Amino acid sequence: MANVSFQNLKAQYGKNVIFDNFSLEVKSGEIMCLVGPSGCGKTTLVRSLLGLTKPETGRIAIGDKVLFDAEKRINVPVEKRNIGIVFQDYAVWPHMTVIENVSYPLKKRKVKKEEIQNRAMRALEQVRMTQYANHLPSQLSGGQQQRVAIARALVVGAEVVVMDEPITNLDAKLREEMLIEIRMIQKNLGATILYITHDQQSALELCDRMAVMESDGKLCQVGTDEEIITNPINRFTFEFIGNSNAIPLVVENGNTYLDLDEKIPYEDGKGKDLHNKELLVRLNDVVFDKNSKIIATVTSRIFLGSEYNYFLNLGGKEIRLQQSMLNAKNDGTVDVGEKVGISFINPHFYDKKIIKEAL
Amino acid sequence: MFSVNNNAMAAIDGKKRFSMDKLLTIVCFFMLFVVVIVPIFMIIFNAFFDKNGFSLNLITEQFADKKNLDAMFNTIKIAIFATIFGTIVGVFYAWLLGRSDIPAKGVMRALFNIPYMFPPFLGAMAWELLLNDRSGYLNRFFMDVLKLEKPPLNINSIWGIVFVEVSYYFPFVFMQVVSALERMDPTLEECARIAGAKQSTVIAKITLPLVKPAISAGALLILISSLAHFGVPSILGFRQEIYTLPTRIYAVIYNSGGSFEGIRQGAALSVMLVGVVAIALFIQNRILSAGNYDIIKGKSMRPTLIKLRAAKLPLLFLSIFTLFIIVIVPLGMIILISFVKAYGLPLVPENFSFINYQKVFANKGTIDSIRNSLILSVSAGIISMFLGTLVAYVVQKIKPKGSAVLEITSMLPYSIPGTVLSIGVILAWSGAIFGITLYNTLWIILVAYIARYLSFSMKTSSASLMQVSSSLEEASRACGASHSESLADITLPLIRPAMVSGFFLIFLPAMREVTTSILLYGPYTRTLGVHIYSLRDAGYIPQAAALAVVAIGLIMLLNVIVTQLTKDRKGV
Questions:
Q1: What is the CATH architecture assignment of A243-351?
Q2: Less crowded by CB within 10 Å, the N or C end of chain B?
Q3: How far is A51 from chain B (nearest CA, A)?
Q4: Where in chain A are the domains?
Q5: Contact B527, B544 (CB under 8 A)
Q6: Does residue A100 belong to the interface with chain B, where contact is any CB pair within 8 Å?
Q7: CB-CB contact of B130 with B140 (8 Å)
């Protein structure tokens, strides 16, 4: 079993606490994506798992094997932890050929020579790099170097592989390919993958489960991507995971209004306590609705290939709306300058953000 | 943030109390303490303390002596003028070769680098033969041809010293500025032209300000080198009793026959010299505080060349003339004199023979001095290479508490004149440390060389280590390598080219070193430089010239080998 468990971890640099009381379970054989804004402590967590940073308190274990336990004073050195790692900058050694890079972990584990060759080639096969075995990294493109890094992380058959933003430096098309490849490799090997990124889009494409971290290092939600999209636990998760519109609400005489330049009645709000709340809604959950009393003016329309992006003016506030090609075909598009009724499906209500006065 | 990571890494490394990082750090501190701190401390101690404790007597005595004050003013005067003229010449030719369409650039650039390899004191020797006020060949020629009463030029003067120093020091500025010009984004100049600026305005307002950091770095090098310089002023100045502080220190110790009192006096004068250097550095820093311009990029681009049109031929002629004066004339003179049967004979073919070469090589001292210099420069090169890399690694990657101290300590000898360093080394290794006496052995010269050249290798290794991302080492740790294994497998191979070039940066100047060794040599430990110097001093000028030709040939040969060796680096 290669489930990874972090229990009550605390890490700090000087007086700056990165995270405190952090606990997370990664199930054996799953791809867990850890997402969060830059600087939230994702990398520190990974470094703690690898043994490159020493947490203050807590416990880290893979299956039954304890890697770190502050109370029992256990701290397995980096090289004995047996975790595959793919760094953001690949960290492919520039003075070694591709095959030397991939063989290195085997050599350090004193594997027999003939076996090293076979296993290294097999690892290169998995990432489709066999024909480059004798190239130097400087002769490879970024994507190819990345594959070498992945092969090197996989070659010893580590049960746990950590990937720290492995595709951020690649172009869009290559990113897509690499995600599919990582997925396939994981299926073949059954390794547990902890995938770190600040890019929710690639996380959604790749993960079995997702863990969302807030900027202060708190873990705010863990769940499947579906759960997190459909049922975000708080405003941070909702906003982090995709684009949305936010409209302030106000309740007067028992009626709920959209609190804009003019107060527009919001009838769907009946029976809910929405005073001083905000309505948050995804771009594709804003729809044209001839029967709606909420009337907006189209200010611009952009064709994006698979959908239309509209910018609407609703009582002086800019609202964005996404119309899929299918809907555009069925209902027709709306032209710039037209006034049009809109309604919000699947809205979320959260407390208003408290905006601190700038000093 | 990284420093903390690495500290954590160090903490993780060992349950053992003594992790490898700690060991390296301690070794570093210890070595620098012994090699750098102790000699400096010994100078200060001896200058300010006598049997009765703290006293300023020795220092005030030195200031009271007019000869010392004259030496101080000469030092400053020579350094200022050498810096100003050297900078002007360096910038001018850097621009001409880097940015104009002057022909034969490749050849000229190679030739402009020769003064950098050529030991300045040999240049001074050559010029003295030519322009000595009574017996200089060129002076006599002018007097004969122009029917002059008095010799027209006198190289044995302050201006003579400035002239020779300029001709060997301007490459410092030249090389820095040429490389900055090459890395400069040409669109910056093009934009100014498009915006309506004239060519001359672009040079004054865009190009020069952009390369200002390079100019000021080069000027600083000239300034420090000139303040500390021994060879040229000693060869050209002694006869006319023109002293600079470094030559004055040498004279004081030499006249006292190497007695302790003489060395103490030298120590006090050293404090004076270091004070002058420190003030000069401070002022230079104020005037030319180097800005940081990111627009100068690492990769080289093809700059637009400026057409010289009608000025092309005159400028080409000027360049060739300059090269002729600073390279061909002194070199040719040394070679000619090395063949002449006796000093003073006219330079005509009947007076030429190989007798000087035979005499020089029949002298056992010659072979010894070449052997000594080879042993010293190879071992100083190797030891400083490893020690410098160690310091660079500790400062860059381990970052212990006090790493700034380490860095400054290792850079310190760089701005401390070689003469001063030698006195410190004499004071430290004449029994002061654990009663060890190295005086009159090769070891004492070796210790001085290591202290003097440590910063060279430390700088190159440091620059190279900065390029090695820490994730490379971390990746190998995660792959199962221990800390020392990842050092040996990953980091060291990656910085090997820098270490090799660090070695040669030390080896080449150490081969022709005079300043430090002249104060440290003993009867059996003459170096090549010292041997040439003393042959000349004893009046065997043609023999000195013959050995100089051998030395120059050796240095050039080694230089060619170095460039060939360092050419095929693996692309990192």
A1: Beta Barrel (2.40)
A2: N
A3: 7
A4: 4-233, 243-351
A5: no
A6: no
A7: no
